[in-house]
Amino acid sequence: MKASKLRELSDDELIVRLKDTRKELFNLRFQHATGQLDNPHKLNATRREIARLLTMQTERERVRKAAGGEA
Fold it and tell me: Is residue 69's pLDDT more than 80?
């Protein structure tokens, strides 16, 4: 999913999406270890999606702290 689409999600939706993507990564790693993974590129794509989700969460936290006046 592109970053622009992720920005449209709410905080709760981001958390759910992150949880689901981490489960997907676990399953992909398990398939890879047992030799059942058809598309190894999916591992990298899933890792990158997790990174995007974490980046969105960090951006939102920084905005909240800046709006709240905290340093």
Answer: no
